[in-house]
Amino acid sequence: MVALALTQPARADERPLLPDLRQAPVGCAGGYGGDPSLCRDWDVCLVADAKAPNGECVTSGEIRAVRIRFTTAMDNVGEGPLMLHGRRSDRNSDEMSVRQAFQTSRGGPIPGSYDEARRATTTSMYYEPTPTHLHWHLMGFARMQLRTPGGRTVVADRKNGYCLGDRYRTADAGGLPDPTSPEGQLAERLKKSNCGRNDPGATEMFEGISVGSGDDYRKGVDFQWLDLTNVTSGTYDLVNTVNSDRTLAESRYDNNSSSISISVQWPGGAKRRPAVITEAPAVTLLRSCPGQERCSGQLRTDDLLARARSGPIPEPAPGRPECGTDEPGCCCCACR
Length: 336
Hints:
It contains 2 helices and 18 strands. It has about 325 residues and is mainly beta. The longest helix has 10 residues, at about 180-190.
């Protein structure tokens, strides 16, 4: 583990350098800086086991659920790092309480423990024992929902835990920090963060995201989907929001949501799913709205006509390779 410079208790006149969590465009790989409407890190998956957190996609046989899977990514574009320290009093407690720590000057010391983290939060950490995780999760960091154009929630996600770390550099980030500086040491620690993997007995834990970095979750990760099985044909907003309850202090909150507008159409022009599902509904991306909670309401007639005339879907935007491949840069996304 990289040793971080410790800090003394903050003075009353010190101003914390706050993080700014920006929700990246839905369906785009972390660090992508191009046109979000070209991102294709999403798909529709038919599964045989509706209870499976990450069921294998099938094309035949008994189909019990239809899911839209999508990649999400959260950037830190603020003045200071996001630093979260967890602690539990003993191993009999299932959860750790979480405090947020702050750097108070660039190049200044980094709070290195729960005691030095001064701000209480309402979130917690817990150890996830399933084989694809086996590490400590931060609860409720982000929320995913399918909403009507009017804002009513139709489907909510089942994902509740996150293992935060520096997984990529944002497209608009500057150069890497000096590796000998407190910021550089912190970035190196968060780059290697595995959230206490195989350590269920831990009593303290640390997670976070450096300035200019982000944390992403590819579409193949457990619960990285919304259930379309009982959704009627129509137009919807798929909305992703980071820090939705604002328990984490930030410099701003107006960029915490991003959304896409999609059309869902069951086969044969049907309004609802058939009694026996044999094929997926057609799901079409109509528009991408980074930084906005609502997307479908902005669609105009000429937008829809342009979509209809646009021809074949463009090639997917470049991003990190899918997990489980042999391509360079691949990682164990399922472990997160």
